[in-house]
Write a structure and sequence with these properties.
about 20% helix
């Protein structure tokens, strides 16, 4: 990680469905907030798809549109943060594959998912504007492969948006992200 994020900052997401704003709070999960700030300020999320949208659970995103860029980040893991906030509706956290495996994938909680707290999912921010937009993101594909009919995350990593645009054309996406400090 290159630098420390501000104590609090906002990330304004322009999406195919509308706009929403995430307010990050470094005191909640400093490593997560720092990584999110780094990704948001470098354009990492631009044109990325919301590839896993499970109604009443989560909206997941954070695999870059370009397989070369995605590959560069795949092993850039950050250590876990302690869980200081519950995974309430509207909070955002990094996805994990086990302890100390957070990289670039995130999810926004669509419901109160407090059961995730004990699994180490440390929220670092929350949606403060536009939760109605988040609620409208396309959820018709369901869970990802191989458990469901949605996109295969391995193929997103290796094929990028070409795969998603061809096989999952209804997915909503991020047009751009603007970071604002107070």
């Amino acid at each position: 990680m290159s630098e420390t994020a501000p104590d609090t900052f906002k990330a304004r997401f322009q999406t195919s469905r509308g706009e929403f704003v995430i307010e990050a709070n470094r005191a909640w999960a400093p490593r997560g907030a720092d990584r999110f700030h780094e990704l948001a300020t470098t354009g990492f999320f631009d044109e990325a798809r919301f590839f896993r949208v499970l109604a009443g659970f989560v909206v997941q995103f954070g695999i870059n549109k370009d397989p070369v860029t995605a590959a560069k980040w795949r092993n850039e893991k950050i250590p876990d943060d302690p869980v200081t906030q519950t995974n309430a509706r509207g909070t955002i956290t990094f996805a994990t594959a086990g302890p100390n495996t957070r990289t670039t994938q995130l999810f926004i909680n669509l419901a109160d998912n407090g059961r995730l707290d004990g699994m180490g999912f440390s929220a670092f921010g929350r949606v403060t504007e536009g939760m109605d937009v988040v609620d409208k993101l396309y959820d018709g594909y369901g869970e990802g492969a191989p458990s469901g009919n949605g996109p295969d995350q391995g193929r997103i990593q290796t094929e990028g948006n070409a795969y998603l645009e061809r096989d999952f054309p209804e997915l909503d996406f991020i047009r751009s992200v603007t970071v604002e400090t107070e």
